Amino acid sequence: MPNDSVTAAPWILADLLLFVFTFIAGLLIVPFARRFALAINLVDKPGERKIHEKVMPYGGGIAIVSTVCLIFVLAGLGWVYELPAKVWPELGALMQTHRSGFLNATTLAKLVAILGGSIFMFILGLVDDRRGLSPGIKFLVQFLAAGGLYAAGIRVTAFIDFAPVSILLTLLWIVAVTNAFNLLDNMDGLSAGVAAIASLFFFVVAVQAGELFVASFLAVFAGALTAFLRYNFHPAKLFLGDAGSLFVGFLLASLTVTGTYYEGRGSGYSVLMPVLVLGVPLFDTASVIFIRIRNHKPIYKGDTNHVSHRLVRLGLSRPEAVLTIYLLGILMGGAAVLLRQLEGWGATLIFCMALGVIGLIIIFECAAARKAQHTEPEHGSGNP
User: Fold this and answer.
1) Strand residues in 194-267 grouped as ranges (E)
2) Closest to 335 in 3D by CA, of 358, 315, 369
3) What is the pLDDT of residue 104?
4) What's the pTM?
5) Closest-CA residue to 149 (of 254, 277, 287)
6) Integer angstrom CA distances of residue 262 from 11, 106, 122, 185, 358
7) What is the rounded CA–CA span in Å between residue 215 and residue 197?
8) Using CA atoms, how far apart are residues 58 and 351, in angstroms rounded to an integer?
9) Residues 188-212: pLDDT tens digits?
10) Quick one: which of 260, 258, 280, 282 has its CA closest to 271?
11) Could you give phi then psi for residue 56, rounded to 5 degrees?
């Protein structure tokens, strides 16, 4: 697979087709996943921290996992590539070359490690949705899954050639991002929408870096998320559940570790690109943990102190709060993409502007904290 941006342009068309195929497949699968979740009683019931007044199915995780796996099976069989070639013969050579580069002996090992670990997280969340698991068990399984990625060669280095530091960074990053999206699943369309936006920016970065396996994987992932959002944005018809949010977070974290963000050109800030792209969910998690510790409450006990809840307390509707967080994610993602293109003061300025976005969120949160007089019920898929 070529590894330079000059040859990347034709591959964007192939990735766009992968996105479209996945999106269409997702639109067809989601209704079946919803009915299946209702049939097996995999549901979220109204409660003290819930705003929904009727039983809601946890079919989102089933739909996203099924869609992603189906597309990879069809891609492996070649069906995804054969149909465009028949409709548009000029695409035939491009699509077949893309297939050989996207799914080969080297990338297949990465695919199995990433998808296998993500499905493991899905199963963990599924058990949690049905029976409930202690935070200790969930963290232990998450660290084990992250360790499996490290053993498969998918790891964070950050220019530090020292194994203990590398494994520590890998485990902390994977677990932090996984739980960030689990915690972010507190309003209709929030967690999946932020993940879709992040996937778009990571896709742009992967194309720039010539990381075509990562770019193609992200195209499939984004297609599944976008199809799910058709049924999850307000008013939602089904929820992600822990199964879905853990799968989404782990998969996105794994792909960020797999990609390359610095190749000897541009600013050293480039290694921080994943942190900026995922700045909003990571900040949401950090701020909620800080508030719970300050209030002498267990960090695993759910509340309504997330960024989304604070925006609502400032006067926004829930859909407006979600769209505002989408906008913040776009601003952070745009700043991250620019980092790879700039050097010196330009890169420093962009980085400071991104920090300014986080500062703006803090100002919003402080204003909301002063205004808050009571705790508002939470949408929730049952996640803290």
Assistant:
1) none
2) 358
3) 81
4) 0.88
5) 254
6) 21, 21, 31, 31, 24
7) 14
8) 38
9) 999 999 999 999 999 998 888 888 8
10) 260
11) -120, 135
CB 212 within 8 A of CB 32: no
> For tokens 């720039």, what's the residue?
208
- The helix (H) or strand (E) run that includes residue 57 is strand 56-57
For 100-138, the pLDDT digits (tens) are 778 888 888 899 999 999 999 999 999 999 888 999 999
b/e per residue 205-236 (b: at least 16 CB within 10 A): bbbbbbbbbbbbbbbbbbbbbbbbbebbbeeb
How many CB atoms lie under 10 A from the CB of residue 298? Answer: 10
Phi and psi at 44, nearest 5°, equal -110, 120
User: Which residues are paired to 57 by β-bridges?
Assistant: 43
Under 8 Å between Cβ of 97 and 278 = no
Domain ranges in the chain are 5-267
Taking the CB of residue 107, how many other CB atoms lie within 10 A of it?
18
C-alpha to C-alpha distance for 65 and 4, rounded to whole angstroms: 31
Tokens matching residue 224: 């599944």
